[in-house]
Automatic annotation (TrEMBL):
PANTHER family: DIHYDROANTICAPSIN 7-DEHYDROGENASE
Enzyme class: oxidoreductase
Enzyme Commission code: 1.1.1.-
GO molecular function, one term: oxidoreductase activity
A Pfam family of this chain: adh_short_C2
Keyword Oxidoreductase appears in the UniProt entry: yes
Protein name: SDR family NAD(P)-dependent oxidoreductase
Similarity-based family: Belongs to the short-chain dehydrogenases/reductases (SDR) family.
Domain of life: Bacteria
Organism this protein belongs to: Streptomyces coeruleoprunus
UniProt entry keywords in alphabetical sequence: Oxidoreductase
InterPro entries in UniProt: NAD(P)-bd_dom_sf, Sc_DH/Rdtase_CS, SDR_DHRS6-like, SDR_fam
Amino acid sequence: MRDLAGLNALVTGGASGIGAAVAAELLRRGARVAVLDLDTRGAPDGTLALAADVTSDADVRDAVAAAVGEFGALHTVVSNAGIGAVGTVEDNGDDEWRRVLDVNVLGMVRTARHALPHLRRAAADRPGAVSVTHTCSIAATAGLPRRALYSASKGAVLSLTLAMAADHVREGIRVNCVNPGTADTPWVGRLLDRADDPVAERAALEARQPMGRLVSAAEVAAAVAYLASPAAAAVTGTALAVDGGMQGLRLRPA
Ligand code: NAD
Protein backbone atom coordinates (compact mmCIF):
# COMPACT_ATOMS: atom_id res chain seq x y z
CA MET A 1 0.00 0.00 0.00
CA ARG A 2 1.53 3.31 -1.08
CA ASP A 3 -1.27 5.57 0.17
CA LEU A 4 1.22 8.12 1.52
CA ALA A 5 3.10 8.62 -1.77
CA GLY A 6 3.86 12.28 -2.34
CA LEU A 7 3.62 13.16 1.36
CA ASN A 8 6.63 14.45 3.28
CA ALA A 9 6.75 13.69 6.99
CA LEU A 10 8.65 14.70 10.11
CA VAL A 11 8.69 12.28 13.05
CA THR A 12 10.11 13.45 16.38
CA GLY A 13 11.65 10.79 18.59
CA GLY A 14 11.79 8.73 15.40
CA ALA A 15 14.99 6.84 16.18
CA SER A 16 13.61 4.39 18.75
CA GLY A 17 10.51 2.45 19.73
CA ILE A 18 7.18 3.79 18.51
CA GLY A 19 8.73 6.70 16.59
CA ALA A 20 11.11 4.44 14.65
CA ALA A 21 8.22 2.11 13.82
CA VAL A 22 6.17 5.10 12.63
CA ALA A 23 9.04 6.39 10.47
CA ALA A 24 9.48 2.93 8.92
CA GLU A 25 5.74 2.53 8.29
CA LEU A 26 5.38 5.98 6.69
CA LEU A 27 8.36 5.17 4.45
CA ARG A 28 6.91 1.78 3.53
CA ARG A 29 3.68 3.48 2.50
CA GLY A 30 5.46 5.86 0.16
CA ALA A 31 6.17 9.00 2.22
CA ARG A 32 9.51 10.74 2.46
CA VAL A 33 10.44 10.88 6.13
CA ALA A 34 12.69 13.06 8.29
CA VAL A 35 13.51 11.85 11.79
CA LEU A 36 14.22 14.37 14.52
CA ASP A 37 15.88 12.80 17.55
CA LEU A 38 18.42 13.51 20.27
CA ASP A 39 20.31 10.43 19.10
CA THR A 40 19.67 9.59 15.45
CA ARG A 41 21.57 6.28 15.33
CA GLY A 42 18.32 4.27 15.34
CA ALA A 43 16.65 6.27 12.55
CA PRO A 44 15.40 3.79 9.94
CA ASP A 45 17.42 3.50 6.72
CA GLY A 46 16.07 5.78 4.04
CA THR A 47 15.02 8.56 6.43
CA LEU A 48 16.61 11.98 6.69
CA ALA A 49 18.17 11.96 10.17
CA LEU A 50 18.20 15.28 12.01
CA ALA A 51 19.93 15.48 15.39
CA ALA A 52 17.91 17.88 17.53
CA ASP A 53 16.51 18.34 21.02
CA VAL A 54 12.80 19.21 21.24
CA THR A 55 13.53 21.27 24.38
CA SER A 56 15.47 23.71 22.16
CA ASP A 57 13.32 26.04 20.09
CA ALA A 58 16.29 26.77 17.79
CA ASP A 59 16.95 23.05 17.27
CA VAL A 60 13.32 22.40 16.32
CA ARG A 61 13.23 25.44 14.04
CA ASP A 62 16.41 24.33 12.26
CA ALA A 63 15.26 20.71 11.94
CA VAL A 64 11.91 21.72 10.42
CA ALA A 65 13.75 24.05 8.03
CA ALA A 66 16.16 21.25 7.08
CA ALA A 67 13.29 18.83 6.36
CA VAL A 68 11.48 21.41 4.23
CA GLY A 69 14.76 22.33 2.53
CA GLU A 70 15.34 18.70 1.58
CA PHE A 71 11.77 17.76 0.63
CA GLY A 72 10.39 21.10 -0.59
CA ALA A 73 7.18 20.83 1.48
CA LEU A 74 5.87 19.28 4.70
CA HIS A 75 2.50 17.50 4.94
CA THR A 76 2.74 15.24 7.96
CA VAL A 77 4.04 15.86 11.47
CA VAL A 78 4.21 13.09 14.04
CA SER A 79 5.16 14.57 17.41
CA ASN A 80 6.22 11.56 19.37
CA ALA A 81 9.34 12.38 21.41
CA GLY A 82 8.60 11.81 25.06
CA ILE A 83 10.12 10.70 28.33
CA GLY A 84 8.71 8.93 31.37
CA ALA A 85 8.48 9.71 35.06
CA VAL A 86 7.49 7.44 37.92
CA GLY A 87 6.06 8.63 41.22
CA THR A 88 3.36 10.45 43.13
CA VAL A 89 3.31 14.24 43.45
CA GLU A 90 5.46 13.84 46.56
CA ASP A 91 8.16 11.98 44.69
CA ASN A 92 9.00 14.41 41.86
CA GLY A 93 10.27 17.93 42.55
CA ASP A 94 9.74 21.08 40.51
CA ASP A 95 12.88 20.53 38.44
CA GLU A 96 11.69 17.07 37.39
CA TRP A 97 8.23 18.45 36.54
CA ARG A 98 9.80 21.18 34.40
CA ARG A 99 12.12 18.70 32.66
CA VAL A 100 9.37 16.26 31.70
CA LEU A 101 6.81 18.91 30.70
CA ASP A 102 9.51 20.62 28.63
CA VAL A 103 9.97 17.47 26.53
CA ASN A 104 6.48 15.96 26.53
CA VAL A 105 4.36 19.10 26.19
CA LEU A 106 6.49 22.05 25.10
CA GLY A 107 8.37 19.80 22.67
CA MET A 108 5.10 19.24 20.81
CA VAL A 109 4.20 22.94 21.03
CA ARG A 110 7.56 23.97 19.53
CA THR A 111 7.26 21.37 16.77
CA ALA A 112 3.78 22.58 15.88
CA ARG A 113 4.79 26.23 16.01
CA HIS A 114 7.57 25.77 13.47
CA ALA A 115 5.73 23.27 11.27
CA LEU A 116 2.36 25.02 10.97
CA PRO A 117 3.33 27.65 8.37
CA HIS A 118 4.57 24.82 6.11
CA LEU A 119 1.54 22.63 6.80
CA ARG A 120 -0.76 25.53 5.91
CA ARG A 121 0.95 25.88 2.52
CA ALA A 122 0.80 22.11 1.92
CA ALA A 123 -2.90 21.93 2.81
CA ALA A 124 -3.80 23.96 -0.25
CA ASP A 125 -2.14 21.32 -2.49
CA ARG A 126 -3.23 18.15 -0.69
CA PRO A 127 -6.71 18.61 0.86
CA GLY A 128 -7.39 16.01 3.56
CA ALA A 129 -3.82 14.75 3.63
CA VAL A 130 -2.16 17.29 5.90
CA SER A 131 -2.00 16.39 9.58
CA VAL A 132 -0.34 16.51 12.95
CA THR A 133 -0.46 13.39 15.10
CA HIS A 134 0.67 13.44 18.72
CA THR A 135 1.76 10.36 20.61
CA CYS A 136 -0.31 10.72 23.75
CA SER A 137 -1.02 7.80 26.14
CA ILE A 138 -3.88 6.12 27.93
CA ALA A 139 -2.21 7.72 30.98
CA ALA A 140 -3.93 10.97 29.93
CA THR A 141 -7.27 9.74 31.25
CA ALA A 142 -6.68 6.42 33.03
CA GLY A 143 -5.75 7.54 36.54
CA LEU A 144 -2.66 5.34 36.72
CA PRO A 145 -0.99 4.93 40.11
CA ARG A 146 2.49 6.49 40.62
CA ARG A 147 2.42 8.33 37.30
CA ALA A 148 1.29 11.82 38.41
CA LEU A 149 3.79 13.80 36.36
CA TYR A 150 3.70 11.56 33.29
CA SER A 151 -0.11 11.44 33.32
CA ALA A 152 -0.37 15.23 33.69
CA SER A 153 2.01 15.67 30.75
CA LYS A 154 -0.10 13.39 28.56
CA GLY A 155 -3.32 15.05 29.76
CA ALA A 156 -1.83 18.27 28.45
CA VAL A 157 -1.01 16.57 25.14
CA LEU A 158 -4.64 15.43 24.82
CA SER A 159 -5.94 18.96 25.48
CA LEU A 160 -3.37 20.43 23.10
CA THR A 161 -4.51 18.00 20.41
CA LEU A 162 -8.16 19.04 20.77
CA ALA A 163 -7.38 22.77 20.90
CA MET A 164 -5.10 22.59 17.86
CA ALA A 165 -7.69 20.56 15.96
CA ALA A 166 -10.19 23.38 16.57
CA ASP A 167 -7.75 26.13 15.66
CA HIS A 168 -6.65 24.62 12.37
CA VAL A 169 -9.67 22.71 11.08
CA ARG A 170 -10.61 25.43 8.58
CA GLU A 171 -7.02 25.56 7.36
CA GLY A 172 -7.22 21.96 6.22
CA ILE A 173 -4.87 20.71 8.93
CA ARG A 174 -6.11 17.71 10.89
CA VAL A 175 -4.82 17.16 14.44
CA ASN A 176 -5.23 13.85 16.27
CA CYS A 177 -3.45 11.72 18.81
CA VAL A 178 -2.82 8.05 19.39
CA ASN A 179 -3.09 6.64 22.88
CA PRO A 180 -0.86 3.58 23.17
CA GLY A 181 -1.28 1.24 26.09
CA THR A 182 1.83 -0.56 27.29
CA ALA A 183 3.89 -0.83 24.13
CA ASP A 184 6.86 -3.12 23.72
CA THR A 185 9.65 -0.58 23.16
CA PRO A 186 13.15 0.04 24.56
CA TRP A 187 11.47 2.35 27.10
CA VAL A 188 9.50 -0.52 28.63
CA GLY A 189 12.62 -2.69 28.36
CA ARG A 190 14.53 -0.16 30.46
CA LEU A 191 11.78 -0.18 33.13
CA LEU A 192 11.75 -3.98 33.24
CA ASP A 193 15.54 -4.12 33.48
CA ARG A 194 15.33 -2.26 36.78
CA ALA A 195 13.30 -5.09 38.34
CA ASP A 196 15.00 -7.82 40.40
CA ASP A 197 13.71 -10.42 37.95
CA PRO A 198 13.03 -8.76 34.56
CA VAL A 199 11.68 -11.97 33.00
CA ALA A 200 9.13 -12.52 35.78
CA GLU A 201 8.27 -8.81 35.72
CA ARG A 202 7.60 -8.95 31.96
CA ALA A 203 5.37 -12.01 32.40
CA ALA A 204 3.42 -10.23 35.16
CA LEU A 205 3.07 -7.11 32.99
CA GLU A 206 1.78 -9.17 30.07
CA ALA A 207 -0.66 -11.02 32.34
CA ARG A 208 -2.14 -7.66 33.44
CA GLN A 209 -3.02 -6.74 29.83
CA PRO A 210 -6.57 -7.58 28.63
CA MET A 211 -5.09 -9.39 25.60
CA GLY A 212 -2.41 -11.07 27.69
CA ARG A 213 0.31 -9.32 25.69
CA LEU A 214 1.83 -5.91 25.14
CA VAL A 215 0.99 -3.74 22.14
CA SER A 216 3.74 -3.68 19.50
CA ALA A 217 5.31 -0.48 18.20
CA ALA A 218 4.27 -1.57 14.70
CA GLU A 219 0.61 -1.72 15.79
CA VAL A 220 0.81 1.87 17.06
CA ALA A 221 2.60 2.88 13.85
CA ALA A 222 -0.22 1.46 11.71
CA ALA A 223 -2.70 3.69 13.56
CA VAL A 224 -0.50 6.75 13.10
CA ALA A 225 -0.13 6.00 9.39
CA TYR A 226 -3.92 5.75 9.07
CA LEU A 227 -4.40 9.13 10.80
CA ALA A 228 -1.83 10.66 8.42
CA SER A 229 -3.43 9.12 5.34
CA PRO A 230 -6.07 10.52 2.99
CA ALA A 231 -8.38 7.75 4.26
CA ALA A 232 -8.65 9.78 7.48
CA ALA A 233 -9.60 13.00 5.65
CA ALA A 234 -12.66 13.46 7.92
CA VAL A 235 -10.85 12.53 11.15
CA THR A 236 -9.68 15.38 13.37
CA GLY A 237 -9.73 16.09 17.10
CA THR A 238 -9.78 12.43 17.98
CA ALA A 239 -7.77 10.18 20.28
CA LEU A 240 -7.27 6.70 18.87
CA ALA A 241 -6.47 4.13 21.56
CA VAL A 242 -4.12 1.32 20.54
CA ASP A 243 -4.00 -0.36 23.88
CA GLY A 244 -5.17 -3.94 23.54
CA GLY A 245 -8.46 -2.98 25.19
CA MET A 246 -6.87 -1.53 28.33
CA GLN A 247 -8.97 1.64 28.34
CA GLY A 248 -12.27 0.49 26.90
CA LEU A 249 -12.67 -2.92 28.48
CA ARG A 250 -13.57 -3.36 32.08
CA LEU A 251 -12.60 -6.97 32.44
CA ARG A 252 -13.44 -8.81 35.62
CA PRO A 253 -12.34 -12.29 36.58
CA ALA A 254 -14.73 -14.95 35.27
P1 NAD B 1 11.67 5.32 23.43
O1 NAD B 1 12.44 5.75 24.63
O2 NAD B 1 11.94 3.98 22.81
O3 NAD B 1 11.80 6.42 22.28
C1 NAD B 1 11.70 7.80 22.56
C2 NAD B 1 12.57 8.55 21.55
O4 NAD B 1 12.43 9.95 21.84
C3 NAD B 1 14.07 8.22 21.69
O5 NAD B 1 14.63 7.97 20.41
C4 NAD B 1 14.65 9.47 22.32
O6 NAD B 1 16.00 9.72 21.94
C5 NAD B 1 13.71 10.54 21.79
N1 NAD B 1 13.74 11.73 22.65
C6 NAD B 1 13.62 11.78 24.00
N2 NAD B 1 13.78 13.03 24.43
C7 NAD B 1 14.02 13.80 23.32
C8 NAD B 1 14.27 15.17 23.11
N3 NAD B 1 14.37 16.03 24.16
N4 NAD B 1 14.46 15.62 21.85
C9 NAD B 1 14.41 14.76 20.79
N5 NAD B 1 14.19 13.43 20.94
C10 NAD B 1 13.99 12.96 22.19
O7 NAD B 1 10.14 5.44 23.88
P2 NAD B 1 8.76 4.92 23.22
O8 NAD B 1 8.21 3.90 24.12
O9 NAD B 1 8.92 4.64 21.77
O10 NAD B 1 7.88 6.25 23.42
C11 NAD B 1 7.56 7.13 22.37
C12 NAD B 1 6.34 7.93 22.76
O11 NAD B 1 5.28 7.01 23.06
C13 NAD B 1 6.51 8.82 23.99
O12 NAD B 1 5.85 10.05 23.78
C14 NAD B 1 5.77 8.03 25.08
O13 NAD B 1 5.26 8.87 26.09
C15 NAD B 1 4.67 7.38 24.28
N6 NAD B 1 4.08 6.20 24.89
C16 NAD B 1 4.82 5.07 25.10
C17 NAD B 1 4.23 3.96 25.68
C18 NAD B 1 4.97 2.68 25.94
O14 NAD B 1 4.43 1.82 26.65
N7 NAD B 1 6.17 2.49 25.38
C19 NAD B 1 2.87 4.01 26.05
C20 NAD B 1 2.15 5.18 25.82
C21 NAD B 1 2.77 6.27 25.23
